[in-house]
From TrEMBL:
<dbReference type="InterPro" id="IPR007370">
    <property type="entry name" value="Glu_cys_ligase"/>
</dbReference>
<comment type="pathway">
    <text>Sulfur metabolism; glutathione biosynthesis; glutathione from L-cysteine and L-glutamate: step 1/2.</text>
</comment>
<comment type="pathway">
    <text>Sulfur metabolism; glutathione biosynthesis; glutathione from L-cysteine and L-glutamate: step 2/2.</text>
</comment>
<dbReference type="GO" id="GO:0005524">
    <property type="term" value="F:ATP binding"/>
</dbReference>
<comment type="similarity">
    <text>In the N-terminal section; belongs to the glutamate--cysteine ligase type 1 family. Type 2 subfamily.</text>
</comment>
<feature type="domain" description="ATP-grasp">
    <location>
        <begin position="497"/>
        <end position="755"/>
    </location>
</feature>
<comment type="function">
    <text>Synthesizes glutathione from L-glutamate and L-cysteine via gamma-L-glutamyl-L-cysteine.</text>
</comment>
<dbReference type="InterPro" id="IPR011761">
    <property type="entry name" value="ATP-grasp"/>
</dbReference>
<comment type="subunit">
    <text>Monomer.</text>
</comment>
<dbReference type="InterPro" id="IPR011095">
    <property type="entry name" value="Dala_Dala_lig_C"/>
</dbReference>
<dbReference type="InterPro" id="IPR006335">
    <property type="entry name" value="Glut_biosynth"/>
</dbReference>
<keyword id="KW-0436">Ligase</keyword>
<dbReference type="GO" id="GO:0046872">
    <property type="term" value="F:metal ion binding"/>
</dbReference>
<dbReference type="Pfam" id="PF07478">
    <property type="entry name" value="Dala_Dala_lig_C"/>
</dbReference>
<dbReference type="GO" id="GO:0004363">
    <property type="term" value="F:glutathione synthase activity"/>
</dbReference>
<dbReference type="GO" id="GO:0008716">
    <property type="term" value="F:D-alanine-D-alanine ligase activity"/>
</dbReference>
<keyword id="KW-0464">Manganese</keyword>
Length: 771
């Protein structure tokens, strides 16, 4: 079967380039003195018994990141970024991830800690590995790249070929061919992307290393050399067929050369459904795990996106070429792999001519597939590196080690990469285009060990699952725990007021208008009283104007114009004196109380209001489109009107220390400041907020109360509050990162509501760890 012909003759080019991708990345937690961290795996992470993404490999100090399988390489890298963020922020503050495949400063071999968690089989298996290969070799880390073709492509090929009777037979042959040819030619990838040219001298004093001669110069890849972590020499597996592959591994287990099937560490490992190889004979190969890739210490993820794209292109070419590698060709390829690993990274490859021929073949395939110029550029860059070895990754790493020293080079990069993940703790890199509350929820769900699927990125729609529990969440806190009608009730401020008034809660009086003319006709109704003009159905303070003194008719009309731009119905309400507080009610409890100070600037006696706004907007906690905990202060019509009420303009220069307010409404989303008031608030008002939520039959809501004095308890005779709004999908980011006070991570409360048992398990785990 000539796969290239089938693809070209049946217009399968596009399907051929599709696939499913996953990346596993190992690393070492490192202490401030560049030594292997002796601390426990971060206790805030969910149990490694069930965690889908953040595990440990051999050592307790060797975290392993496992991305979920994704239908595009770009999405896989999104996940790789996000998981790095979670891991970095979960680690001890003074620890960092060692960016190199070869280890940091290791203690004596007996002191390297094997994983510590409640799984006797896992510990027993790792102890066997330590006895068989030595602990220091176990600390070598790398990238595993998982790949499969799309089901649609396999089905398309199956329908157009006549060689195989079942789709499983075809699927097995595709993955066997991919694996065999990869093992024949993977030395080419090692030349380009090998990145472990050196190891600290302490590494060689290991159980196995004492028998080997330490390199006298830099090499391309210690990890893939005889110093690396490989099965013993007698373990050679046949890739002629899936049947021979399975039988060989089972035989090595029976004869004691392998303790169990998973101890086979071939560079191309066939994977089926479940852990049993025998099952793979029934259900077929599902994907291939490629295991020979060094960590790229120059990239914060350990692998660059360009690398990933080249690997994918290489996998396609392994299928595109007509022949499948024979057993002897695989053995020859593995010899070339070892030779390439041992080469000086600044020297031309011994297999330069063959490599250039392969790259020409890849270029021809790219043209046949009509792929874009970016793929051609990847190949052209690879061709250049076979003429200029100094441009290869290993040579560049060796140059930096020579210049800075091994420890300094890796430490500086490790700290730089950690800083990237921690400098904006409210952002989940990889998903930073999603609204902030969703990013916070995703982060906390990942940390807890909940499986996360992004169902609709543009709509911020997530699927969360753990064992047999599945929950869907939109915009961070819209869940199945609330009814659809409750959202419509809160969206309609008139309906909200009526329900609350009937339930006995205090709400402001006012009128509802459907046109500017109608509202103007009722202007005299509000004579000599302060008012609020706002759209009927908006959130985040959009379109609201507040007049603490009776406005003239021109200002009143301007406020109506602003409000009617946002809705076809506008409310004019009495202004209630006092301070506005946001009560975040979550599952019949107040999770946080926030005092929101309206958008303002403080004069310095020399800067204009325009300049003061620009300076305040430079705060990294401020941003646009709800992508930061606080919003930029705007310079729009509402702000202009507010300044006019104070006889000011944007060009005015306030005296030093004078506070100038740009808004009357105190929404964080319109530039306000946030002050946590959870502990200060009298408990009676918490009870009011919870009661309002119950009256609206809602589990998650933001209740806005005007309270003249929060220290005076609310009583039936003197309620001391007025409810001006109840918000569905209330922002959580403004509680998490505040201008003053303690941040409240409400997303954890959302997860507790959805997965109460899992949260309790994590709590117990933390308590046990702290004993």
């Amino acid at each position: 079967m000539n796969i290239a012909t089938i693809i070209k003759d049946n217009d399968l080019q596009s399907l051929f380039t599709e696939g499913n991708f996953g990346i596993e990345k190992e690393g070492l937690r490192t202490d401030p003195s560049n030594q292997l961290a002796m601390t426990n795996h971060p206790h805030v992470l969910g149990s490694r018994v069930y965690h889908p993404y953040l595990l440990t490999d051999f050592s307790e100090a060797q975290p392993e990141i496992v991305t979920p399988v994704q239908p595009s390489l770009k999405l896989t890298f999104n996940w790789l970024e996000a998981l790095h963020d979670v891991l970095h922020r979960s680690m001890n503050q003074d620890e960092y991830l060692w960016p190199n495949s070869m280890p940091n400063l290791l203690p004596d071999e007996d002191e390297i800690p094997i994983v510590r968690y409640n799984d006797p089989d896992a510990i027993r298996y790792r102890q066997h590995l330590a006895d068989s290969y030595g602990k220091k070799k176990q600390t070598i880390s790398g990238i595993h790249f998982n790949f499969s073709f799309s089901e649609t492509f396999i089905e398309g090929v199956f329908q157009k070929q006549t060689t195989y009777q079942t789709k499983t037979e075809l699927q097995n042959e595709l993955y066997i061919k991919l694996s065999a040819n990869f093992l024949k030619y993977e030395w080419l990838l090692l030349y380009l992307f090998g990145a472990s040219p050196y190891a600290d001298s302490g590494f060689y004093d290991s159980k196995s290393g004492r028998l080997l001669k330490k390199p006298t110069d830099y090499v391309r890849s210690l990890r893939n050399s005889s110093f690396g972590y490989h099965n013993h020499d007698e373990v050679i597996v046949n890739y002629d067929s899936v049947d021979s592959y399975v039988k060989d591994i089972e035989n090595f287990v029976e004869t004691g050369h392998l303790s169990e099937e998973r101890e086979f560490y071939g560079n191309a490992r066939l994977r089926g459904k479940g852990d049993s190889l025998r099952k793979m004979l029934e259900s077929g190969v599902q994907y291939v795990e490629f295991r020979s890739f060094d960590l790229n210490p120059l990239d914060r993820l350990g692998i660059s996106y360009a690398q990933g794209r080249f690997y994918h292109l290489f996998f396609l070419y392994m299928i595109w070429i007509e022949n499948k590698a024979t057993r002897d060709e695989i053995i020859e390829g593995q010899e070339k792999m070892l030779n390439t690993a041992d080469e000086n990274p600044h020297e031309v490859s011994a297999y330069q001519k063959e490599a250039l021929n392969i790259l020409e073949g890849m270029l021809s395939m790219v043209n046949d597939l009509s792929l874009n110029d970016e793929f051609e550029e990847l190949i052209h860059k690879a061709q250049e590196k076979f003429y200029h070895p100094e441009e290869t990754l290993s040579a560049r790493v060796a140059d930096q080690i020579e210049e800075q020293g091994y420890l300094t080079f890796n430490r500086n990069l490790g700290l730089e990469f950690k800083e990237f993940s921690t400098e904006r703790p409210y952002v989940l890199n990889g998903f930073e285009d999603m609204e902030l509350s969703t990013q916070l929820l995703m982060y906390d769900a990942i940390e807890l060990g909940v499986e996360v699927e992004v169902f609709d990125r543009a709509d911020h729609f997530l699927k969360l699952s753990h064992e047999n529990i599945v929950e869907y969440v939109r915009n961070g806190n819209m869940t199945s725990k609330d009814t659809t009608i409750s959202h419509f009730i809160m969206e309609n401020k008139t309906v909200t007021k009526k329900i609350l008034a009937e339930a006995g809660f205090n709400v402001p009086g006012g009128g509802e208008y459907h046109s500017i003319k109608e509202a103007l006709d009722h202007y005299s109704n509000y004579q000599n009283q302060p008012i609020v003009v706002k759209p009927k159905s908006t959130n985040y303070g959009i379109g609201i104007s507040v007049f603490k003194k009776y406005p003239d008719k021109t200002s009143y009309k301007e406020a109506l114009d602003i409000a009617f731009q946002e809705d076809d119905t506008v409310l004019v309400e009495e202004f209630v004196p006092g301070t506005e507080y946001r009560f975040f009610v979550l599952n019949d409890e107040v999770g946080a109380v926030l005092l929101r100070v309206p958008a303002n600037v403080i004069g310095d006696g020399k800067s204009t209001i325009h300049e003061l706004i620009d300076h305040k907007n430079d705060d990294p906690l401020r941003g646009a489109d709800h992508r930061a905990p606080m919003a930029y202060i705007e310079k729009g019509a509402i702000e202009t009107l507010m300044l006019k009420e104070q006889d000011l303009t944007f060009d005015s220069i306030p005296e030093k220390g004078k506070t100038v307010y740009l808004r009357e409404n105190s929404n964080i989303s319109t530039g306000g400041d946030s002050i946590d008031f959870t502990k200060e608030m009298d408990e009676s008002y918490n009870a009011i907020a919870v009661g309002i939520a119950k009256a609206l039959d809602v589990k998650v809501t933001g209740i806005d109360l005007i309270i003249p004095d929060y220290k005076i308890p609310s009583t039936e005779e003197n309620p001391g509050y007025s409810c001006i709004e109840a918000n569905f999908n209330p922002a959580m980011n403004m509680h998490a990162y505040v201008t003053k006070g303690k941040g409240r991570r409400l997303t954890k409360g959302i997860l507790k509501m959805l997965f109460p048992e899992l949260v309790q398990q994590q709590k117990q785990q933390i308590q046990e760890t702290n004993k």
